[in-house]
Design brief:
With 458 residues, this protein is of the alpha/beta class. The chain has 13 helices and 15 strands. The protein has helices spanning 68-76, 90-99, 103-106, 122-128, 165-175, 198-201, 216-223, 231-261, 294-297, 323-331, 345-349, 418-434, 446-454, and strands at residues 6-7, 43-49, 78-84, 113-114, 132-138, 153-157, 181-187, 268-274, 298-304, 312-318, 362-366, 380-385, 388-393, 399-402, 442-443. Strand 12 (380-385) and strand 13 (388-393) form a beta hairpin. The relative contact order is 0.18.
């Protein structure tokens, strides 16, 4: 039975939640066929970070010390070094995360489309196992795009700083004591235009006194070539972005402390994942939706909890669609069928991860046209295998890049590797055929469309 969510606690319009099924307590013996791991999690926590470049985390190589709390989580668990967003756009990336299906296959290819009711979400699947389910997010209203399916309650903090999210989390945890929980938290803070509290705004030293503002209208002028961004403006934007990253990490620390205070942290399976990155270069400064490159597609993915070894780094390709099967296998539950994602559990838990058969292609795509905003160059796709990424753009030649040796993708090496190009083209064509019968999401309400435009989406 599909369950609709009520507003959770004091966020938004006051509402009451129906009592969810009683929790099952400690995890039962694993069913036949489930992977065997050292311990089973009691709870599940998913923390999603919006517009958060993986390369801003210390654990991914940033030297600036912006993310001590996230780096601690990475050290305590397993990090995937090469996770790839399926589309650099908030709603499609989250729909993929919670359904195990790519945006093309689940029908959510724009922030201006709602998820079809026919989708089965992670929250719905865990609710059927007896989990209490709650979601808290700021700025971006996931309820308006039908991504709160299966949650007993949700809360929207409309503020850009997520100031009410942690207090509401504490109340939620207190109200669900003794129950097995699935909790989803989302922080929109890194998405521009940035709203920084004084202590983080003070980190920005670059000065710019010109007419450009950190808003959609200024950024659109840059993207269309109407104006060229002065170096001072670019540097100030980058510094403000980094300050927003540090601010987000501080919120992560507060979230952790709230769970720890309720003794609900160490027994939980935690997934921290970024939906996509952000462009900090040239004409696409402050944009991500029309951009397919490492800046926008490289996602961070951290796993922590019972059964998850500490201090491991995985080089195999992963995508958000892998979350649903991975959660179920690490919980000791049968993996749901008809998912596009693959379980990462064996990679995470195996003492010989190099012996795990893990051959895959990771694909990110942009439609030709979609509700809200078109891609910069029409239809586009990026197909990755190992270190190689093939970029396909409508009406343009293919381009192949070695994103390990050339992460900024400045050199096209397609002529040097025709066999790689052919293999990646064939993989993409096979995927297109396999996803041809995808559903179509509905268009969001005029009210939600207006909210999205206020957030900078067009």
């Amino acid at each position: 039975m599909r369950r609709s969510a009520a507003l959770l606690l004091g966020l938004g319009v006051a509402g009451a939640c129906d009592d969810p099924p009683a929790g099952r307590g400690a995890a039962a013996a694993p069913p036949e066929g489930a992977a065997v791991v050292a311990a089973r999690p009691r709870d599940v926590i998913v923390l999603t970070l919006d517009t958060f470049r993986a390369d801003r985390m210390g654990c991914y190589g940033h030297p600036g010390g912006l993310t001590p709390h996230l780096d601690r989580i990475a050290a305590e668990g397993t990090r995937f070094a090469h996770a790839m967003a399926p589309m650099p756009c908030t709603a499609p990336a989250h729909a993929a995360l919670f359904t195990g299906l790519s945006p093309r296959l689940c029908g959510v290819t724009s922030n201006f489309l709602t998820a079809p009711d026919t989708l089965d979400t992670l929250a719905e699947r865990l609710a059927r196992l007896g989990f209490a389910t709650g979601a808290l997010f700021n700025a971006f209203d996931f309820a308006a795009i039908n991504l709160v399916q299966g949650f007993d309650g949700f809360g929207l903090d409309k503020g850009r700083r997520a100031e009410r999210l942690v207090p509401e989390l504490k109340r939620y945890l207190q109200s669900t004591r003794g129950r097995r929980r699935f909790t989803w938290l989302h922080l929109f803070i890194p998405h521009g235009p940035h709203d920084l509290p004084p202590e983080f705004a003070a980190r920005v030293t670059a000065r710019y006194d010109g007419p450009l503002q950190e808003d959609f209208f200024s950024m659109e002028k840059l993207r269309t070539g109407e104006v060229v961004a002065p170096p001072e403006f670019v540097e100030r934007y980058r510094q403000r972005y980094d300050a927003a990253i540090a601010f987000t990490d501080a919120r992560v620390g507060e979230i952790r402390a709230a769970f720890e205070a309720e003794r609900a942290w160490d027994d939980a399976l935690l997934l921290v994942v970024t939906d996509h990155g952000e462009s900090l270069e040239g004409r696409t400064l402050g944009f991500h939706a029309p951009v397919l490159n490492q800046e926008t597609l490289h996602a961070a993915m951290l796993w922590r909890g019972p059964g998850v070894p500490a201090g491991r780094v995985k080089d195999q390709l992963a995508q958000p669609m892998d979350a649903v099967p991975t959660v179920f296998e690490l919980l000791g539950e049968p993996i749901p069928g008809e998912l596009e994602g693959r379980s990462l559990a064996e990679l995470i838990t195996s003492d010989d991860p190099d012996g795990v058969d893990w051959t895959r292609h990771a694909i990110a795509s942009l439609p030709t046209r979609f509700e809200g905003k078109s891609g910069e160059d029409g239809e586009a796709a990026a197909i990755r295998s190992g270190r190689f990424v093939l970029l396909l753009r409508e009406g343009r030649d293919r381009a192949l890049h070695d994103v390990v040796a050339d992460p900024r993708q400045t050199t096209d090496i397609a002529a040097d590797h025709p066999d790689v190009v052919r293999a990646l083209e064939a993989a993409f064509e096979e995927w297109v055929r396999a996803t041809r019968e995808a559903p179509t999401g509905g268009v969001v309400s005029p009210e939600m469309a207006a909210q999205l435009r206020k957030l900078g989406y067009q």
